[in-house]
Amino acid sequence: MAKTEATRVCSWNEWDPLRHVIVGVATDCHIPPPEPAVNAKVPDDSDMKGRHGMRPRETIDKGNQLLDKFADVLKSRGIRVDRPTPIDFSQPVQTPDFRTPTQFGCMPPRDVLLTVGKEILEAIMSYRCRWFEYLCYRPLMQRYWEEDPDFRHEAAPKPRLTDEDYHPDYLSHGISEAQRLEWTANKHFVTTEEEPLFDAADVLRLGRDLVVQHGFTTNLKGIDWIRRHFPDHRVHAVNFPGDPFPIHIDATFTPLRPGLILNNPNRRLPDDQRELFRRNDWEIVDAAPPAHNQPPPLCYSSVWLSMNVLVLDPKTVCVEKSEVYQAEQLDKLGMNVVEVELREAYAFGGGLHCATADVLREGEFEDYFPIQPASDTANL
Ligand code: DAV
Q: What Å distances lie between residue 299 and 41, 195, 302, 367, 377, CA to CA?
């Protein structure tokens, strides 16, 4: 899309041909200071434990270099790319309910911005350090609002994020993996049901159906909020019991095209939640293993960012360059693979899908699941 073409916001799913996208920026990214939701996510043996403040300068420079190159790859394929404007993340966040000494960053945009049709919705967010992150995207939102008369710019209600939002048993040290897996299986997550909470990256857009992960960053009230906010959609709550740190659905369940989804083999969708896909002949396949057995330094995401791919159209997918097994599998599944080097930017909060947020994909609002499961609302 040429720069002179008027801005149009519209994206209904994760696979239609991508025309316009936001790519995050690593500038001034901080390791957040301790707070309940962050403490629960960062593993005890992580090199991020006990550290906070601006991330090492050389990692920021390298991260920006890779993100710029990723943007160039997308531009060379005719996709318009916009970038957020970082605010000063060394500033504290103070509300009547909490104070945190510093903030987070503006990577990854996927966590904050949920594009559904002609709407971009600023998510609630469950980390105190990410409370003001939407400000980094406001220059773009304002521009889209001025240039596209059909664009709906929405913001979900800002949360209080008092201590009532977090279960105290997640805040102790030395929680075993077995304990975490038991809690996850019982849907006992760090966030409580005090108020609606969701991150945008817990939501998959599949046309008329939105599939939302219930986990650390999104609670049932948050899913109910999404359901009430999008009355023309059907909203399905899912959870993945094999994930000891369930934040964001996009390293767990990755749609590639109508009828085909990759699922993390360590975090399989439980049988009783597969009905929607089964009834409509969608195939759920195990993702290939990651190429690495450790995340890169100062990274709080798992090695499964291997499956955090960005679909450019139903036949084309961007895969991180070192993730050779994932690339091979996608090739076998009939996709053209575009390699993108981004591993050294993983520490900023994610891979290729996380690092982006949709503005425009071609295609219409479609119903890919005409046969709905009988028992669906049981999940909510
Ligand atoms: O597997 O650590 C990362 C998802 C980031 N958006 C994981 C989830």
A: 11, 29, 8, 37, 36
Asked if 248 is an active-site residue, the reply is yes
DSSP 115: E
CB 238 within 8 A of CB 269: yes
318 classed as catalytic: no
Which residue, by CA, sits nearest to atom 1 of ligand 1? 302
> Of ligand 1's atoms, which has the minimum distance to the CA of residue 264?
1
Residue 4 has pLDDT above 70, yes or no: no
Q: How far is the CA of 301 from the centre of ligand 1 (A)?
A: 5
3-state SS assignment for residue 213: strand
188-234 pLDDT tens trace: 999 999 999 999 999 999 999 999 999 999 999 999 999 999 999 99
Q: How far is CA 143 from the centre of its chain?
A: 23
Rounded Cα gap, residues 278 and 260, in angstroms: 11
Query: Could you give the C-alpha distances from 229 to 113, 186, 201, 225, in angstroms and in order?
Result: 15, 27, 17, 6
pTM score of the predicted model: 0.96
CA of 149 to the centre of ligand 1 (A): 35
What count of Cα atoms within 13 Å lies in the side-chain half-sphere of residue 209?
18
Q: Is 199 a catalytic residue?
A: yes
